[in-house]
Amino acid sequence: MRAGRLRCRVTLERPVETATPSGAKKLRWQPVGDFWAAVEPIRGREYFSANQIRDEVDAKITLRTPRDIEITPQLRVRHQATLYSIQSVIDVKSAHRTLELMCKTHAARAGR
Q1: N or C: which end of the chain has fewer CB within 10 A?
Q2: Do 61 and 77 form a contact (C-beta atoms < 8 A)?
Q3: Are 78 and 35 in contact (CB under 8 A)?
Q4: For the residues 92-98, what does the mean pLDDT come to?
């Protein structure tokens, strides 16, 4: 993969459940790491291919496979003011070098 394609800085986040002083459980998101990635809206042909796997895929996020973090659909991606839930993780050519994350845009923005 050419490094020039990975020009967007994204943050992977994992859910962490914490207790409030009243004992109620609250979900917050903890940063796992920052990565250089390519964030691309899904185009015609790619959309229909992805649609067979998942229904509402809005973007494909490509990044190098991290060595110390397992990326799963339980994580989410923050890019600028947009949050993406990961619908599927694809190991390109099963080479463990590049991952494609098929993502759906969250309704809420990152600042909230």
Answers
A1: C
A2: yes
A3: no
A4: 90
Which three-class secondary structure state does DSSP give residue 45? helix
Q: Which two tokens stand for residue 91?
A: 């190991």
Give me the residue label for tokens 């207790």. Answer: 19
Domain count, the chain: 1
pLDDT of residue 102: 93
| Res 84: pLDDT | 94
Look up the domain containing 46 and give its range. 3-105
| Separation of alpha carbons 103 and 68, rounded Å | 21
Residue with tokens 């994350």: 101
Query: What CATH number does the domain containing 33 carry?
Result: 2.40.10.270
